[in-house]
Amino acid sequence: MKLFGYNLDYENSYQKWSFLISHKLFKREGERYIEMEGEAVEVDDEVALHFEKIFSRYLKIAYVDILNADRADLKVSVYYLDEPAIMVHKVVWRHLDNKVTYIVYDVSSGEPPQHLEEPECRELLSVFGIPIF
Amino acid sequence: MSISEEVEKPGDLSLLITDDARVKYPELAKRDSLELYDAVGREIRARGLFPVRGQDFQVKISANPQLSPGEKLVRKTLSVCNECRSLIRAIVLERDNKIWIRKACPDHGVMEEIYWGDAEFYYKKSMEANEGHGIENPYVDILNACPFNCGLCARHRSHTALLNLVITNRCHLGCWYCFFYAQAAGYVYEPTLNHIKFMLAAARRQKPVPAKAVQITGGEPTMRDDLIEIIRAAKELGYEHVQLNTTGITFMFKPDLARQVREAGVNTIYMSFDGVSPITNPKNHWEVPYILDVFRSVGMGAVLVPTVTKSGNLKEVGAMVRFGLKFNDVIRGVNFQPISLVGRVPRKERERLRVTIPDVIKAIEEQLDGQVRMEDWYSVPITIPISRFVEAVTGKPQFTMSNHFACGTATYVMQDRKTGRITALPQFIDVYGLSKYLEELTEYIKRGGSRKIAMFKLLYKLNSFVDWKKTPEQLRKRKRLLRIIYKIFVKHDYNALGEFHYNSLFLGMMHFMDEYNYDVARVERCDIHYVTPDGRVVPFCTFNVFPEIYRDKAQMAYSISLKDYLRMKGFTSMAAERYRRNIRKLEAGEPYRRYYEGFWDPSQLSYEEKKQISMRFGVPVVED
Fold it and tell me: Where are the domains of chain A?
């Protein structure tokens, strides 16, 4: 299975939005979930489309907004794995007084990502023994 | 009997589905329901209607267009290649006080097109940008890159502000440039009434804001015998505003139809009107006076819609505004559309025809001696602070017009009944000031402020945004203007806008894109959508710029061949349904002289010249 994780420092005056996305991937090893390091990759259309599939519904941005933005520092990591894993993206909404939300999904479940507030995410991740960040 | 009735019969449904779709739903004809139309739509979509990468489109975003010396980058974006129509990278740049779009295809090189004809005006309008709601319940999953994933998907940033509903591709005209009408397309597309109800319902289910306005269009919608039932269906499904897009010609011969259309619920007619002379408007120049008289007699308002070209009617835009003002009792607005060059158009031809929003606005300013200035025009999203304020007060999501600022501008003009002077609304209302104040009040409410106090503050300050000395007489009397604004903001009574329209002429400017100036950032914010027969909602500039993927492909899957239609009707050709005009008779009538006096002198052309103009355009001429 091939996955992408995104770190994005985004500022767009058209939307008057500013946020910071960071991510961590936790793969299952035995009974535990441990953090995995990815490899840096260049942005291409596959990466862009994957970003939109995960984020567009919640962030209301698409790849063209990243191109359009006043500032969009996008760093992408690729992961190759066969084990179950939990992908967690943290969003700090700077234009909303630094409100924090999380986009979380179980990569092997096929279920769509969930967009969670901090307490809900903490509770969800605690089931897997994953610390919130 | 119309085609819609004939194909309602059991068994005829198979005619509606092409061999390519290979779907037979005979039970649908017997007991159709919205759920079954939805099921048919999903099935047909899965079998080839939805765009497939490699088959219907390509993505080639490896090449990056570069700036040349003396150019300034405005922003990066995505566009489509003029040659292969693949998705490619583009930049919007400034050069020589104009805005251009430059794109790079790895296979076909660098291409460039004018984007906006005035950079200073572009930057001013960019300050009015504002983002919309989008929709919470997308119609399709994200499977492809935009714009090959319509619609609407989770990327889309605007709900449907205006739904276009194509009810037929039959037409009584044969305009030379039209590839859509039945004769040229080779098939007849005419969904049944029940199918139309499904399509209308599809846009009504949007959240948080369902579609509230629909434009019934074609082809020529008055060709349908069940037009009244269609209008009623739209009203019954909750559409508050219904427009009818028509040449208007049918109403000349069937004035009672105009009354029926009005009574069924059409609020406004959208009528093509490319100029005040037959040279600029060969489509319906001779008929317009009679059509407008019919509309006046039944209390129907019309918005005139000129398609503007540089070499054609740009020189008449001022005259069109004056025409609208002179007959403002029936003409509610003039909505200019700078030409969209869809299809293969060589560069030299594009340069001859191409005109952008600022070019048309400048021409209006010049031709009206500065009475309507460039700074009187605002981009459509300037209205969003009003919606946001009402949302904050009511706690409910509101209708917003959130298309990209570069897509359209508008203003209102009034002619003082005493002095004849033309005044634009921003000359007596501080639009920016009011907009900013509404944003402040909205923020105040969001941060816990009292809604009642916010309303009092607005009422208290409203007067300060109006320069009464410059307000035209008809709005000055008994502070009528303040009453209208009060109704909109305090009572949330949008019918008050209609009262405003009766006292003014709306001037709009809507520039639909083509493949040459295509900007994906604009299409993702488009709020003028079409509904396809399979139940998708697709932005205007995707539906029409990629007809082979959207419009024609979807409609063909639900059509019958021209041959089958002719056989059903007992016609030998579509000429049986074509309109033929009698130029002499039309010019001899009193309405013709009354409407065009001061605008066009018919003696400027000989009868033969007028006949040739009409026939070259595609409308045959009869002598008796």
Answer: 2-127
